[in-house]
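Researcher: First entry.
Model:
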Amino acid sequence: MTAFNTIDDLDDAQRVLVRLDLNSPVEDGTAQDNRRFDRHAETVGELAEAGHRVVCMAHQGRPGRDSFISLSSHAEVLADHIDRDVGFVEGIYSETALEAIRSLEAGEVLLLENTRMADEELPEEDPEVKAETKFVQTLAGEFDAYINDAYSAAHRKHASLVGFPLVLPAYAGRVMQSEYEANTAIAEREFDGQVTMIIGGTKATDVIGVMNAIGDRIDTFCMGGIAGELFLRADGANVGYDIDDSELFDSQWDENADTIGELLADRGDQIELAVDLAYADEEDDRAEIDVAEIAEKTESFLDIGSDSVAAYEPIIRDSDAVFVKGALGVFEDERFSVGTVGVLEAIADTDCFSVVGGGDTSRAIEMYGMEESDFSHVSIAGGAYIRALTGEPLPAIELLIDAAK
């Protein structure tokens, strides 16, 4: 049973305010299509098809950054995904915006301007404070229900995320529902067999925190990426430090060396380290070297090696559940996609519960011809995924749970 009310619980013919997360790459001032539009289209399309009046709000970028733009182009992309018109208004709770909201007919969809263009949106404050803002108070009077579908922003205490559940009946959209159920599975679901986690990516501090928090729930960690090198360094290998201006390793080593050492000491039998690494040779081709043979790090290692992939694959195939947090190499470059693609293909071929998350890792599925349907869940969340894995509270979700009570 879901912990909160969902759009299945809505009464008929409602005026609904729907919070999405359409934060997207921006090129030449225009939002680029990505997986988030496709996911949120399920919620928006279902609501419109059911005859609700649907008003959507979302954020894009942060003030002062090039990605901080209007949502006018987002409305066009969303319309393509739901195969119906999406109106757009250059306002959030201005009189113009309120008039556009009031003029909606059943089944019509409207997108409001970037929520972060409202001064009251961004400061992280308690929900009770946000609920009293003019932003929330003005808009709330126009709606029968609030629907939060922005799981990937659920760790934020912004007005559009935590203010409305205190003043309107609150529900979860399809993205919120599916992400919550999949990403809390480590903590809440019992598995019959081995549970494996693939650890990679560039933000070692995040994943090391995950390992420390959920070690009791995981049988095997398969290591790659920056974290993988740092663990190799702690294990005595001559890797895991900066050789240029990248500043990817040393600062994270200084922050996490003690925790890494403790994890190796306490959970060394659960941690599988790479036995070889890949780099670009003088001809700019992929080359591999055994970790034991590295006397000094003179090249940037961009992937785990083939022997490491071969060692990880049987672990995956023997697992009842596999969770992925981060890529094992620079998969955007086909030469260094071997690790990431190898483990993803092994997961796809295995009859196990699987969740793929962590930054852009899920993009590898599409890039290399795999199907999302081969995995139990492909997460579009970053920070919220980390919070869920470590058991930290997600304020927007806690409010949905409270609302259901």
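Researcher: Second entry.
Model:
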Amino acid sequence: MRTSNKINLGGKAKSTIVGLSAILLASTAAPAFAQEGESSSGITVSGNAAVTSDYRFRGLSFSDGDIAIQGGIDVAHDSGFYIGTWGSSIEDSPTYGHTELDIYGGWSGEVTSGLTLDVGLLYYFYPNGEDGAAGPSDYFEPYASVSGTVGPVEVTSGIAYAWSQDSLGNSDNVYIYTGVSAGIPETPITLNANIGINEGSLGNPAGVLGVNDYVDWMLGVDWAITDNLTATLAYTDTDAPSINNFTDSAIVFTLGVSF
């Protein structure tokens, strides 16, 4: 239920938080690589793995412009409830360590004809981090999104809100995003675009940006090489102060597999 690459803005939520798998969480962009395997109990287990040239989350690089290895597993019930986890390598630091692990759960389903709602809670966990002078790193973030189609275009809008927590400098953060996705008929190509607005402490990690609010956007293309293998090429940028390999524009390539 998670996207295996969080170049997306709405990112750090399952694939339906982004709704448009390849864009959002992020969240925020990127294809959803999960493949369903349903049992007689109505439970579906799916997994994904990917390698990406740069782990971008809501326009910010969490891998310092370097390659990241990512993957996750999800368990969903046909009632719409789900739980899952997703992990990625990140740039090593004393506070965050070298690994991010996201644990989440929620409900997703059609609330009216053509309109899907997704709500849940996500926990960001950094198992190799050390709570020192920089403070703790783990935090919670509830999320919600709605998605539907307008002609051949799928549209998703959502919000992720992190209340005041020690790891956020005792300040809250809100991220609002919208994305669109459309497949090119009779081809394995899907075009994606998204834009997000961040307001709060997560927009200024470690105080390096000097601002708390910024806008990020992404334009991307997915190529379904096989039913289980997808390649993504995306351009991402923000209006935050330019910092090389952190907030500057980038072209990101991702290769993901589902199982």
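Model: Note on the second entry: The chain has one helix and 14 strands.
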